[in-house]
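Obj.: predict assembly geometry.
Materials: sequence records (below).
Method: joint structure prediction, all chains together.
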Amino acid sequence: MTLHSDSILQVHGLSKSFSGVKALDEVQLNLRRGEVHALMGENGAGKSTFMKILIGLLTPDDGEILFEGNVLKNNDVNNILKQGISMIHQEILIVPELTVAQNIFLGRESTQWFSSWLNDRDINQQAETLLQQIGLEVSPKTKMKYLSVAEMQMVEIAKAISNNAKVIIMDEPTSAISDKEVATLFTIIKDLKAKGVSVIYISHKMDEIYQIADTITVLRDGKYIGTKSAAELDRKSLITMMVGREINTLFPEKSSSKGEVVLSVKNLSQRGKFDNISFDVHAGEVVGIAGLMGAGRTEIARAIFGLDTFSSGEIVLKGHKINIKSPRDAIKNGIGYVSEDRKGVGFIPALSVKHNITLASLSNHTKWGMIQDKSESAVATQMINDLKIKASGMDQKVTHLSGGNQQKVVIGKVLLATPEIVILDEPTRGIDIGAKFEIYKLINELTIKGIAVLVISSELPEILGMSDRIVVLSKGKQTALLSKEEATQETIMKYAMQH
Amino acid sequence: MNNYFTQLGNSTKQRARGMGQYGIFIAFVVICLILSLITPKFLTVSNWTIIVTQVSINALLAFGVTFVIITGGIDLSLGSMVAVTGIVASLLAHPDDYPVIVPVLAGLLAGVFMGAFNGTIITKSKVPPFIVTLGTMTIGRGLALILSKGRPVSNLSDSFNFIGGGSIFGVPFPIIVLIVAFVVCSVVLKKTILGRYIYAVGGNEQAAKASGIRVNKVKMAVYTICGGLAALAGILLTSRITTGQPNAGASFELDAIAAAIIGGTSTSGGTGTMTGTLIGALLIGVISNGLDLLNVTSYYQQVVMGAIIIGAVVLDGWNQSAAQR
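Observations (raw structure tokens):
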């Protein structure tokens, strides 16, 4: 960063409207060579629209983009890629049945650099070099589907490098990878910087931003708010810039008291996934489950909820051993589950907010199989107000809501089934900081009502901020059960990496 | 402020979506207008009675397959179920054999049984519905030939022949069946818990399961209902042609699926309405009737029909992507 401080990408007065609504309003950006530039803002701030314009997926209404001093205009995706701007998408775009090398060189198999025949040996060699460069230890001949999410991401980075990318945009690159893998990613980013590559880094995770970013640009409601050096901008001011108001404490004060044991997991095992897991959750208590990716956290939650089976062990609810074969059984027994996979397991995009919210408790609003619209609408309205779900109305389709509001719809659905224990799996993944805070408040309100809460999260500050006790897993084994007093980031990581 | 943006954006999206749903209705009205201008015979009570009577069988099948397609499935065995149920009914419908209720109930039972069979195989084996019903399509055709010994079953009682050929107060009985079936199917889809679950299963099966919905039961229900409606169509057809034909109903499933798709039911599941399907079936009927009146040969009619199916889906796709851009 010391050597190269000239601009590689300059954006002035960029605007874009959708059906008359301004999604971007005179946005600017100055990206210097070899810097990591964080782009921050709540969901809906215009980050995605901005990035889509940069990579040529959308055409701006107004404004100017200068790349290496030349105006980028009327460019399509391929052209911009060739010029040296690559994007690593949040949802990784790969062809699972092709090999790593074939994925890296997809669409470029028969350019002048290769013979016009498919030459797998050549691309394998090139891929090998690339993979070494970023320190990824997989064979270029491995099929993509056998890689972990983190490895796939690194392959995408290798692909960007092979495209001679001078600017790499990373959209929430750490949303699905473990802390250890994040460290590897950051090493790669630092290498890229050293080679003069610039990175535009989009993330909601504050800790990461301060670890990796040199400069921070904030957008809010489609408008440019400001650009500051990361060293000069403290967290509080950053949050203020993002939300336009102050959030004093990230984690609200808890005021619930611990009641009787609600859920008892005894020696729960699932072959190859987790082994001999035991813990209790009391009424009004939040128990956190921490661990690296692949430690078996989600698998335990899915087994308790009846989405998967387990091979041995017991689940005891309020002193009675229960036999859960399906989510239906779990819901009937008072267990609620908010999945980490909001789109896959959480909500039904084509249904309205109302219909999603009442889906798990719909039989409470039927007579002779006929849905009683009045009573359904009444509880839906109540829940929408309670959870402050922002929607144009209860008949709006959930797919059109922001991530945070979609999550609230799923939570609302779970709560309407009147659970005694709620399992929240990555409840704030991919949602903005304002909505995060509201979800934390909501968790507190649940505990005040005497509901037991089990929280799974990859974000250690979140686990530490919310939990009364923390179960730490490592490779499917329970390595610690820490009290709030014992738990620090360091102790959790120590146990999470203990094998 | 943030919310304000999403709200505006979404209301435009919904408006565009709504236009897409009216699109098929507008197309239907426009085509009717054009036809009534070109040929005076088109807009007469007698012609419309013919159209709706002819449409009734396809519409019944289309209602059934709409349920199935909304769950993300498909049923290719409709035509064979029409044949089997028609043969079963006709075998019991000779004069002085049994009261008319017996062949009707037997036909319905046969359809319900075959639909439930489809549902059972699909839910237990996890084999895609396309493959399962492709198999039962062939099985059904074979059964129809076995039961009838390969010959048409004729000499049916007058009371049985009334079902497809008779009228009440001048309204052909098939039209009455159509209207009742439409109302019942609409209510089931829109107002009952089963209907909601059908949308949920097709919209996101995993999320439906995680909401405590017994996904397999819902699937069983839609294939069984589909079989029952196919039986109704089979009985109507057999009665109208006053013969049980083992080769009846061949490729009827394609017209039924076409009606559902033209009416806005998405083959990827989760969306669709009975009203749309009814209009889709009427559109197919009106176009073939209009082309008949204009003396267009049936060869050209097929070309036109195919183009309309593709056109309807392309238009819907444009509508949706325009709404999202």
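Conclusions so far: The longest strand of chain A covers residues 7-18.
To do: check interface contacts against the pulldown list.
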